[in-house]
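Q: My hope is that you can spare some time for a protein that puzzles me. Underneath my words sits a plain record pairing an amino acid chain with its backbone structure tokens. Those tokens are not coordinates but codes from a learned vocabulary of shapes. Thank you; the sequence and its tokens follow:
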Amino acid sequence: MLFTINPNLTFYSREFPNQWDPSMTVESAHDSSSGFASDVPSYTYSGTNMSTFKGGMRSDASDSPFELNSRKYSDASDSPCETSPRKAHRNFTSSTPKQPNHYNAHDLNMHYRMSTPSPLSYRSSSSMGTPSSLSQKSQKSQYSHSNTSSQRHHPHQHPPQTPSSYPQTPVISYKNPAYEYQLDKHMEQIQYNIKRIELQEDCHVTKQSKYRHHKPSLFDLITDDVIVKIFSHLSSDQLCRASRVCQRWYRVVWDPLLWKRIVINSERINVDKAVKYLTKRLSYNTPTVCVIVEKINLNGCEKLTDKGLHTIAKRCPELRHLEIQGCSNVTNHSLFEVVSYCVNLEHLDVTGCPCITRISLTPQIMQQATAHHLRQIYLRTLDMTDCYALEDEGLQVIATHCSQLQFLYLRRCVRIGDAGLQYIAYYCSGLKELSISDCKKVTDFGVCELAKIGTNLRYLSVAKCDKISDVGIIQLCKHCTKLRYLNLRGCEAVSDDSMDVLARHCSKIKSLDIGKCDVTDEGLCVLAQNCPQLKKLSLKSCDAITDAGVKFVAKSCRQLQQFNIQDCHLTVDAYRTIKKYCKKCFIEHTNPGFY
């Protein structure tokens, strides 16, 4: 504790405990309720009485609020008609020397320290709440008000002091060094933050300027690299809107790293004009072509026409990935131009484009190409799902020119049959994934032709091809021994014989769907015993499956992650067995009794 004591201060003596010196001055009010000295400064008024014992009564009971108010008004008047006792009192106080340790109220740090009491003083004064402490607080506030008023009327005079006729009680000043240090650090941090904000602010109004400039936000503190990373998650139309925010965003938005792909998925945008503007804007050093764009996604853009694809073909020679799902206005002519001029194109998705019937090079390119390799389209992935107009003749053209295909999806191409699959098996020998689900014309003959692909085939879906039976599946399993995914849902002519061959030749299969197939517990047990790596198995609507087969699968294939037993006649015991042995398995069922 730090005590600040007036040089003229005298203390009580042991011999004369009732004597006290009225000229004693203090800086802080003593909290009599707790026994600790408060650090609240009283530089505008003299101290109040203090009792050395807890709960002691004040001796200056004469300083009532009425007397303080009268004293305030009497001190503020300068008229010569002032009463003699008051004038004598004023003369006496004016001759009294000024109190030491007087703080400068204009000092910001000192003013903050004086006006903010320590937590100790709050706890000591407010928690105890004795009558003496409350009376001292009220007297202090009243007397402070009177002194402030007198200073307002007499700015050049010293603040009036308590006359000697009124008793005063010495109060010892208390200062907490640790708390003051924290206040100083807090003030320094505030001043530092103010200066930093002032330096960052460009918002200043000069005499010549009539408008206030834009005030920068915290987003301006982020570097351009971070902004580019954030903007990389926006689509192309959203990037164009962001470029209109400010000059910095305009500069960052057109960074080449953000335009390796163009993504527009809006039905209302005029995509033809958008593609033309973007490809022209992104042609930095090459005015006629845009070499930085490698991927274009225009899914759902119904307003896309052959004109937009013509622009892509002419200005994006480095294009590798193109998706135009649901673009019903696109025809073969514009698609021929894309595959002819974009020689690096590897992925093409024309799902839901009913006007697409084939994929080939343009007639001009075909006439100029003399060698066989010059007539090839080096596509790796082709998705023609829901291209209803595709027939076997068009599939023959595709297989002839796209012999490097590895992933081919022909879902719901209802016009293709065994002849088209024969061309696929002959020309596309490196095919890894093939889906011909819902192709009703495909029979066992087409599946036997696909078996000629051999061990390269890893994924095959013939779901809902109800003309396929054990004949085609057995031939397929004998030659395609590296199958990892096989979908036979809806092939009701497939039975336990196919499961026996599949289990013996394709033991590493991981996903199998035999929903609605004529499979019993016998075929299921053979499958589970020879294929322990199964992770996904669907037995939906297999009426011949019972609890015995399901329990054997659960005990043998403990790596199952997804098990579909919907519409199967199973009990709760089978369900509990699956939960017991396949800890991480997600079970799909329709039995409300399972829990």
